[in-house]
C-alpha cells in the first residue's frame, strides 16, 4: 500500500461535512499516473442525499477525465479503530467505476485490511445485465 494514499486521506478527513452523523470518512484514490484524488462524506439535512467519501473521490476523478482503467487503488479511513467498509450503495458504484482487480484498502487504527474490488459485491448488477 502506498503510504501517500493514507496520508492524503488523513489530511482531508477534517473536511468531512458530517453535521448529522458526526462520522467523518475520507477516501483517497491512486491513479495510474500517480495522481491521488481525495474525497470526504458530504451530508445533507435530507439524509438520503448524503454522498459518501468513496463516491466523492470517484466522481471527482471521473470529473477530471479519469476512467475505470486509470484507477489502481482506493483507501478509506475514519477516526475509528475498527474496520469500516464501504456501504452497499458505494459497492455498487465501485463495481462499475473501478476495475475488478483494483485494491480497496480499509484503514483502521494501525491496520489496513485490503480486498479486491470484485470481492466487495459478488454477483454485482452491471451494464452487462441491461
Ligand atoms: N459513510 C461513508 O462516507 N463511507 C462509508 O464507507 C460508510 C459510511 C458515511 C455516510 C454518512 O455520512 C456517515 O458515513 C454515517 O453513515
Explain the overall architecture:
Helix 3 links the parallel strand 3 (71-78) and strand 4. The chain is globular and about 40 Å long. The mean pLDDT is 97. Strands 2-1-3-4-5 form a 5-stranded mixed β-sheet. With 130 residues, it is an alpha+beta fold. It has 4 helices and 5 strands. The termini are far apart. It has helices at 3-12, 53-63, 88-97, 117-120; strands at 25-31, 36-40, 71-78, 103-108, 111-116. The protein has a single domain (3-129), classed as Cytidine Deaminase, domain 2, CATH 3.40.140. Residues 18, 21, 23, 25, 41, 43, 50, 52-54, 76, 84, 86-87, 90 line the site of tetrahydrodeoxyuridine.
Summarize the structure.
The chain is of the alpha+beta class and 130 residues long. It is built from 4 helices and 5 strands, in the order H-E-E-H-E-H-E-E-H. It has one domain (3-129): 3-Layer(aba) Sandwich (Cytidine Deaminase, domain 2).
Low-pLDDT residue spans = none
Please summarize the sheet with the most strands: 5 strands, mixed
Helix content: 25-40%
Q: What hetero molecules are bound to the protein chains?
A: tetrahydrodeoxyuridine
CATH class division: Alpha Beta
Q: Considering the protein shown, what is the CATH homologous superfamily?
A: Cytidine Deaminase, domain 2
Q: Enumerate how many helices there are, as a single number.
A: 4
Q: Say what the CATH topology is.
A: Cytidine Deaminase, domain 2
Task: Indicate the CATH architecture.
Answer: 3-Layer(aba) Sandwich
The tally of beta strands, per DSSP, is: 5
Number of domains: 1
Structural class: alpha+beta
Rg (C-alpha, Å): 14 Å
General form: globular
Strand content: 15-25%
Amino acid at each position: 500500500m502506498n503510504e501517500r494514499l493514507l496520508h492524503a486521506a488523513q489530511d482531508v478527513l477534517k473536511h468531512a461535512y458530517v453535521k448529522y452523523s458526526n462520522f467523518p470518512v475520507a477516501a483517497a484514490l491512486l491513479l495510474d499516473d500517480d495522481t491521488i484524488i481525495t474525497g470526504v462524506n458530504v451530508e445533507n439535512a435530507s439524509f438520503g442525499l448524503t454522498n459518501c467519501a468513496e463516491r466523492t473521490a470517484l466522481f471527482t476523478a471521473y470529473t477530471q477525465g479519469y476512467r475505470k482503467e486509470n484507477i489502481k487503488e482506493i483507501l478509506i479511513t475514519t477516526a475509528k479503530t475498527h474496520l469500516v467498509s464501504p456501504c452497499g450503495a458505494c459497492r455498487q458504484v465501485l463495481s462499475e467505476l473501478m476495475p475488478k482487480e483494483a485494491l480497496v484498502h480499509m484503514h483502521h487504527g494501525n491496520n489496513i485490511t485490503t480486498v479486491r474490488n470484485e470481492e466487495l459485491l459478488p454477483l454485482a448488477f452491471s451494464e452487462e445485465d441491461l
